[in-house]
């Protein structure tokens, strides 16, 4: 049986997940998982440890292949596609540990994320050198603006590998924002992050939505989910057990039972 539908459709769908299943050694890790992500919406994906959240986003982003089911992103079936093919469609993800180009400066990390920053061919460059220089200057200015937005300007020349975990996460967010993706999946963005940087990360989630992206946030910090996500999907034992705005789930008996003794309201 499919999971419950989102109450009150908020608009066109960015992602529709239907009846996703995968088993490992006879254990059903994801069991007919179904949910929807409306366009320009932040959706929290929560549940106790072992609920199947990380496996679900691995299936959506192509890092694992489902046994059955569908994940349709803006009309395109994702199941069976490779991660790099999915990213080219405009769906990108982070991992539990920030991934940065450690030896590059913070500024260059953001430039790497920009679409269209690749060098033109030598022949093309011979006829369009001026246009190329202008494009690079515009890219650098946009990268500097993003660093300002994320509070990273003073670190722009530092090697990204020398930063704290929270700062690396912000660099990752700035790089994602530079690529202007249609959808972003964030895997535990608050892991190892102090409260001050955590607030910046929350603001970054809202900034992604405001610039037109849809966002899925897998996170154990329920206060973060409450503050920065429009809708919440709750998983337990591989399946979706509840969906809706955070406040509508507070007294849901299934949700309370799934979390009892496992996750505290941070």
**pLDDT averaged over residues:** 86
DSSP strand tally? 10
Dominant shape: globular
Structural class: alpha/beta
Share of residues in helices: 25-40%
- Contiguous runs where pLDDT drops below 50 for at least 5 residues: 1-8, 116-123
Largest sheet, order of strands side by side? 6-7-8-3-9-10
Q: What is the H/E order?
A: EEEHEEHEHHHEHEHEEH
| Rg (C-alpha, Å) | 19 Å
Measured distance between first and last alpha carbons: 32 Å
Strand content is 15-25%
Provide a count of the helices. 8
Q: Tell me about the biggest sheet? A: 6 strands, mixed
Explain what the structure shows.
Strand 4 and strand 5 form a beta hairpin. This protein starts with 12 loop residues before the first strand and ends in a 7-residue tail after the last helix. With 266 residues, the protein is of the alpha/beta class. Helices cover 35% and strands 23% of the residues. The protein has a six-stranded mixed beta sheet, sandwiched between helices. A four-stranded antiparallel beta sheet has the order 2-1-4-5, with helices on one face. The protein is built from eight helices and ten strands. It has helices spanning 53-60, 83-88, 106-112, 122-149, 165-179, 195-210, 222-228, 253-259, and strands at residues 13-24, 27-38, 42-46, 68-73, 76-77, 91-93, 183-187, 214-218, 231-236, 239-244.
């Amino acid at each position: 049986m499919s999971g419950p539908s989102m109450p009150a459709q908020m608009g066109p769908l960015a992602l529709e997940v239907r009846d996703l299943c995968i088993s490992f050694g006879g254990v059903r890790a994801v069991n007919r998982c179904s949910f929807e992500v409306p366009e320009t919406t932040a959706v929290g994906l929560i549940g106790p440890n072992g609920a199947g959240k990380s496996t679900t986003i691995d299936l959506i982003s192509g890092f694992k292949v489902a046994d059955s089911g569908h994940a349709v992103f803006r009309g395109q079936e994702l199941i069976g596609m490779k991660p790099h093919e999915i990213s080219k469609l405009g769906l990108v993800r982070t991992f539990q540990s920030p991934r940065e180009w450690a030896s590059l400066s913070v500024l260059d990390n953001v430039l790497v994320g920009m679409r269209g920053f690749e060098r033109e061919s030598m022949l093309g460059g011979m006829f369009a050198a001026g246009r190329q220089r202008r494009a690079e200057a515009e890219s650098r200015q946009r990268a500097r603006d993003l660093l300002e937005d994320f509070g990273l300007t003073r670190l722009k020349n530092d090697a990204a590998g020398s930063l704290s975990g929270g700062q690396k996460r912000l660099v990752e967010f700035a790089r994602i924002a530079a690529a202007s993706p249609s959808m972003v999946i964030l895997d535990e963005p608050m892991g190892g992050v102090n409260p001050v940087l955590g607030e910046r990360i929350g603001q970054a989630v809202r900034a992604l939505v405001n610039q037109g992206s849809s966002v899925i946030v897998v996170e154990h910090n329920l206060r973060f989910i409450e503050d920065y996500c429009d809708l919440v999907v709750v998983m337990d034992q591989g399946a979706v057990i509840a969906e809706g705005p955070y406040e509508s789930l507070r007294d849901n008996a299934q949700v309370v039972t799934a979390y009892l003794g496992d996750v505290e309201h941070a």
